[in-house]
Amino acid sequence: MTDPLVIAPILAALCAFVALGVTWLRLRRARQDFSEEVSSWKMKLDLDLRNARKERDQLLDALGDAFMLVDADARVLFANKAARTLFRGRDLTGRTVHEAFLDQRLAAALMRCLETGEATVTRAVLGQQSSPLGDQERRGMNAWVIDAARLSDSPAEDPTTRVVIRDVTSEYQTEQIRKDFVANASHELRTPLAIINGYLENLIDDDLVDDKELTRRFLKVMRKHTERISRIVEDMLVISRLESGEAAALKVKPFRLRSCVSDVLERLESVIHNQQATIKIDMPDVDITLAGDRFYWTQVLFNLVENALKQNPRKGLTVTVGCSRDETMTRIWVSDDGVGIPSADLPHIFRRFYRVEKHHSQEEIKGTGLGLSIVKRAIEAHGGTIRVTSIPGQDTRFTMEVPREAEARLQAEAEANALPELSGAGE
Ligand code: ATP
Ligand code: MG
Which residue spans traverse the membrane (predicted)? Predict the structure, then answer.
């Protein structure tokens, strides 16, 4: 028989051992469960973080402007899609801004914000080569705005700086055109005004009014220059009307192109006669009817035929006015076999006040360089295009193309606008 005094402590020890084992197993299980839960939370957090970053990147990629985040050492932390495209697809992350920017003026604008912590907005006008677009830049002078600011008010907390790079080239070019226009217009108006002033001073200060013959001569010169001022002002108003509302500035009605050409030739009859010029009309269909503003079409053709005659005062010039039409397009051209336009000038001749200098002598008043500007804007207001080619001495040709669909649209718009008037008239 086993002594119970011996067995009891053994059993107690065994029970304690089993209880300890169970507790240990429970604890291990609990630890395992806990670490599994922690790692699943970690995975979930990682996923959330990745999704949040992806969402942020997608949002920032959707921005039209280039956007970058830069750290306190001027290293790029993030660059959105527009920034990567701007810098020709280069991976900017980790590079310093000095490496990223081709032009150090752009880098300097950003460094000012990094160094002082103050928000900066800087505009930089760059040449073709120093543009962020580098050799892809095709626009000549180009302009950029660098807008940099710290993300947080407390740099100790977050020293990251955000940078927005905005392409403002088209605004810059518009501003340049406006400045050129004002400068050119003032110059063109100042010249005849100074001449008129000079004659008036002569008449008044030198007391020449009693000399009737001389006064008459002076007044005639003054009238010529006054007419010139009126014409410049009138041309500028036409341009601004066409630019402001374009199609709205037109009074569209169907008209026969042939009759419009006849009007132009009638107005230029004496010049044609004096220069013994030949005018050819190349219009297989004499009944071609255009839907457009007859007034502007007359101005267009007048300017083009007048230019051909004016630039070629020599005898025996041939000027051709032509028109053809197919299902999609009406094509109208004016060509001459005169001196032509140098190829270097061709891209500029539709600009306001542009004249090919070597054609003109200083004393002679031959025009202001607004004619072709009006022509181009009038054609564009009709939904068409104009181009020019020139082989000096052979063929200088202005070709205008107006899609039939644009004509139909203008006609429909004109009819729709006319309706309220008609119903109003009937009331
Ligand atoms: P404006 O028409 O305002 O009286 P303009 O005739 O000098 O002045 P545009 O009609 O705009 O101005 O023409 C611009 C320039 O283009 C002209 O000065 C001329 O140098 C050149 N040009 C235009 N048409 C011809 C042409 N058919 N042959 C040669 N040069 C031309
Ligand atoms: Mg002209």
Answer: 6-25
Model confidence, pTM: 0.68
Atom index in ligand 1 nearest the CA of residue 310 equals 6
CA of 307 to the centre of ligand 1 (A): 5
Distance from residue 308's CA to the centre of ligand 2 (Å): 9
How far apart CA 49 and CA 72 sit, in angstroms, is 23
Mutate to test the pocket of ligand 1, among 311, 376, 399 (most ligand atoms within 8 A of CB): 311
Three-state SS at 420: helix
CA distance 5 to 17: 19
Tell me the C-alpha distance between 181 and 88, whole Å.
35
Cross-sheet strand order for the sheet of 395-403: 278-282, 318-325, 329-336, 395-403, 385-391
Q: How far apart, in whole angstroms, are the C-alpha atoms of residue 221 and residue 293?
A: 35
> 174-243 has which CATH code?
1.10.287.130
Parse the chain into domains and list their residue ranges: 61-167, 174-243, 248-413
CATH topology of domain 61-167: Beta-Lactamase (3.30.450)
Measured in angstroms, how far is the CA atom of residue 400 from the centroid of ligand 2?
16
For ligand 1, residues with CB inside 6 Å are: 303, 307-308, 311, 336, 338-341, 349, 354-356, 359, 366-373, 396
Q: Give CATH for domain 248-413.
A: 3.30.565.10
Out of 307, 336, 391, give the residue to mutate to test ligand 1, the one with the largest number of ligand atoms within 8 Å of its CB. 307
State in Å: Cα 350 to ligand 1 middle.
9
Got the DSSP string for 339-369? Answer: S---TTTGGGTTSTT---GGG--SSS----S
List per-residue pLDDT tens for the chain, 427 residues long. Answer: 567 788 888 888 998 999 999 999 999 999 999 999 999 999 999 999 999 989 988 888 888 889 999 998 999 999 998 888 888 777 888 988 888 877 788 888 888 888 888 899 999 888 877 777 777 777 778 898 999 999 888 877 788 999 999 989 989 988 888 888 888 889 889 989 999 999 999 999 888 888 899 999 999 999 999 999 998 999 888 888 888 765 567 889 999 999 999 999 999 999 999 999 999 999 988 889 999 999 999 999 999 999 999 999 989 999 999 999 999 999 999 999 999 999 999 999 999 888 887 555 444 647 889 999 999 999 999 999 999 999 999 999 999 999 999 999 988 988 887 766 555 444 3
